[in-house]
Amino acid sequence: MRVLLIEDDDHLASYLKQGLQETGMVVDRAADGHDGLFLATGEPYDALIIDRMLPKLDGLSIVRTLRASDNHVPVLILSALGEVDDRVKGLRAGGDDYLVKPFAFSELHARLEALFRRGSSEAPLTRLSVVDLEMDLLSREVSRAGNPVELQPREFRLLEYLMRHAGQVVTRTMLLEHVWDYHFDPQTNVIDVHVSRLRAKIDRDFEPQLLETVRGAGYRLRDTA
Question: 115-132 in b/e burial notation, b at 16+ Cβ within 10 A?
């Protein structure tokens, strides 16, 4: 499952992101309302966790904007405002659930699972397919032309991001932010090393070659044979 966390508190965001990733979820994080809305409207997510009080754009405005554009992704609102009127405003803005701070991680996780079960207007995405490359997001299994491909956790996240953006050029900055959680280029060859390892696993013994290097731009996973 893929979750977007929109939370400006770095400590809380780091704690929640690590905890959710340990349960097998893929988590993106935005630190303010503008970036959060940009990601929420441009990327496919199975659920959003949105802090109510955010810089640049508050959480309820994000939810209202999403609902006005007919986006029905499940939303869990986080807030220190716990009065009945506050919770009612959050739900009426379009939130599916409302959790008051401070809270236990186990409760947040349980509420998130309930949102997944409840679902949105569309069934959550559980499989990705590009040409003859298949990825099961639940079992975390990958195969090419029916042959299993063994990936390390970081390789899996890298391939998932590339598959979700198949046919598009994915830049180093995009990979650093969404796969390595870096918001700057640390002058490392970590991306090149992982792409090389991934290419060896999904392309070496198969045709056509899917993972391309786009000189001066980044990488692209071909979506046609």
Answer: bbeeebeeebeeebebbe
Per-residue pLDDT reduced to its tens digit, 196-217 = 999 999 999 899 999 999 998 8
What pTM did the predictor assign?
0.58
Query: Cα separation of 216 and 63, whole Å?
Result: 37
CB 51 within 8 A of CB 100: no
The two three-digit tokens of residue 136, written as one number: 């099961």
Q: With 60 as the cut, is the pLDDT of residue 181 above it?
A: yes
- CATH number of this structure's domain 2-118, picked from the four choices 1.10.287.110, 3.40.50.2300, 3.40.50.850, 3.40.50.720: 3.40.50.2300
User: In one letter, which amino acid is 79?
Assistant: S
Distances (CA, A) of 225 to 117, 167, 213: 35, 11, 17
